[in-house]
């Protein structure tokens, strides 16, 4: 019997903020759960409809030069002209070529409707739509991925000789997946001895954002300690998505949630 344990905090990718943990014990033997937090305010981006797939890839280089490359399960994203958003993903991320594969992993669908001030989290297997009320909308939102490590580095005292040093660059615009994107690059250097290192450590982060869509189309991270990772919005369509995508199917049971809640799959202990 094969057993694989998956555990991941989803925060830096398309801002989900949930915690998912699960295990796989063989064909049809998946067991896991995902925690959905209470909802806060949401900022709609109106007048810029699109759809696409977010694909994440990691590359780790070993000391002997061997490269280990993994492509994660893609996330489908949709947004209509009213600012309603839909995301379809597996809550249990991991390389697409590892079990549980795409046919065995549960699917979670999130619909955020700023018009009705409601969010639906669809449990596809159980045909249940968990409904949460949004607190309201805000005036603006940054589409850039949040990196708590970088936030902590920026807070380091300027007088600390061992504090990381940051260099910020504005890059030339590029066409990425058919859309014009503006890029920035942040290079961070940890001085010798700041992390127990006997030579400087340099990391590079690039962020490419579409002015028109107001979303990140490419995010790249290069860190000698963990390797390279990219998150790219692919198969971009500028057409208005089907309006039925932004409401629960008629055969789903709607359950009102007052705060945070947990969705579980498979036999529970």
Describe, in plain words, how this protein is organized in 3D:
The chain has 269 residues and is mainly beta. It has a domain at 4-43 and 79-139 and 241-265. Helices cover 3% and strands 47% of the residues. Strand 2 (19-24) and strand 3 (30-36) form a beta hairpin. The longest helix has 7 residues, at 148-154. It is globular and about 60 Å long. Residues 1-17 and 140-156 have low confidence and may be disordered.
For the sheet with most strands, the description reads: 13 strands, mixed
Mean pLDDT equals 81
By oligomeric state, this entry counts as single chain
Q: Write the element-wise H/E pattern from the N-terminal end onward.
A: EEEEEEEEEEHEEEEEEE
Termini gap: 18 Å
Helix percent reads: under 10%
Task: Specify the number of helices.
Answer: 1
Summarize the structure.
By secondary structure, the chain is mainly β.
């Amino acid at each position: 019997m094969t057993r694989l344990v998956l555990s991941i905090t989803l925060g830096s990718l398309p801002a989900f903020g949930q915690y998912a943990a699960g295990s796989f014990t063989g064909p049809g033997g998946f067991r896991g759960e995902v925690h959905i937090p209470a909802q806060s305010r949401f900022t709609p981006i109106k007048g810029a409809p699109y759809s696409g797939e977010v694909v994440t890839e990691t590359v780790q280089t070993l000391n002997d030069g061997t490269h280990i490359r993994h492509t994660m399960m893609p996330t489908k994203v949709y947004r209509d002209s009213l600012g309603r958003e839909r995301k379809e993903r597996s809550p249990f991320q991991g390389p697409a070529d590892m079990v549980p594969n795409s046919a065995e992993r549960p699917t979670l669908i999130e619909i955020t409707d700023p018009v009705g001030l409601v969010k639906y989290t669809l449990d596809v297997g159980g045909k249940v739509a968990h409904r949460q009320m949004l607190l309201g909308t805000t005036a603006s939102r940054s589409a850039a991925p949040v990196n708590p490590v970088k936030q902590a580095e920026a807070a380091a005292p300027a007088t600390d000789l061992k504090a990381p040093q940051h260099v910020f660059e504005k890059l030339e615009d590029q066409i990425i997946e058919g859309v014009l994107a503006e890029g920035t690059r942040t290079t961070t250097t940890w001085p010798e001895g700041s992390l127990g290192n006997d030579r400087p450590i340099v990391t590079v982060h690039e962020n490419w954002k579409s002015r028109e869509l107001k979303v990140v189309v490419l995010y790249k991270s290069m860190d000698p300690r963990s390797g390279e990772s990219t998150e790219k919005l692919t198969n971009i369509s500028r057409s208005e998505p089907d309006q039925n995508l932004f409401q629960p199917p008629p055969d789903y049971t709607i359950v009102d949630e007052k705060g945070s809640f947990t969705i579980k799959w498979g036999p529970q202990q």
